[in-house]
């Protein structure tokens, strides 16, 4: 009886939350247009001017091509950083001796500026795609490792003992007992990682690539094409929202069901 009364009340509030989000988004756009009209400055394009620039760069420029190139770099870097960072972090949280050996290295990597890693990667490897991906992955692995290390430290040892008593296989133990306890930490690391990787990839492209969103933004900056910069930013935000709805939201719902 309790479930039948709670579930409808939650579902009834879902349209209202969506309506509020849409209202806030439209209010921001409306406020942007009004402020630009009041300011009347070429350094602050209006929403209409930005949409015109977006249409131009989409139909006659390289916005789609540059965006796809950047998304591919982000995707490759994200997968590698999450995979390597998760393995290192779980090992550090589960094995005290491994944490003792790698903790100092982790602290050093966390505090080295991303720009330094990018520059050194280009110098040591060259102005190639491998250097760009390597720089992004090295910058992101430490933050993923820290989050997963803390998650591994909070796992319930009683569940591990239960698995040993019932002689559950190692694969089933990981799939059904151990990894589900880390799902919230995976989600936090993924969301934080994606936002950080976007920013680092743009810097990588600005410094040493001849394509991508970062390179395009640098070119428009030289010509003071502010409307173009904002148009690329709009496309950038659109991709982020798409990834959030397609990947993170379903995973977040799964985490909530597990809780």
| Secondary structure tally, helices | 10
- Our measurement of the CA-to-CA distance between the termini, rounded to an integer number of angstroms, reads 20 Å
The helix-and-strand class reads: mainly alpha
Beta-strand level of the residues, as a percent range?
A: under 5%
**Rg over alpha carbons:** 23 Å
Q: Please, what is the CATH homologous superfamily of the largest domain?
A: MetI-like
Give the % helix. Answer: over 70%
CATH class of the largest domain: Mainly Alpha
CATH architecture of the largest domain: Orthogonal Bundle
Report the biggest beta sheet as strand number plus sense, adding barrel if it closes. Answer: none
From N to C, what is the helix and strand string? HHHHHHHHHH
Number of domains: 2
Strand runs, count:
0
Name the overall outline. Answer: globular
Q: The CATH topology of the largest domain, please?
A: MetI-like fold
List the uncertain runs: 1-12
| Average residue-wise pLDDT | 84
Question: What can be said about this structure in brief?
Answer:
With 259 residues, the chain is an all-alpha fold.
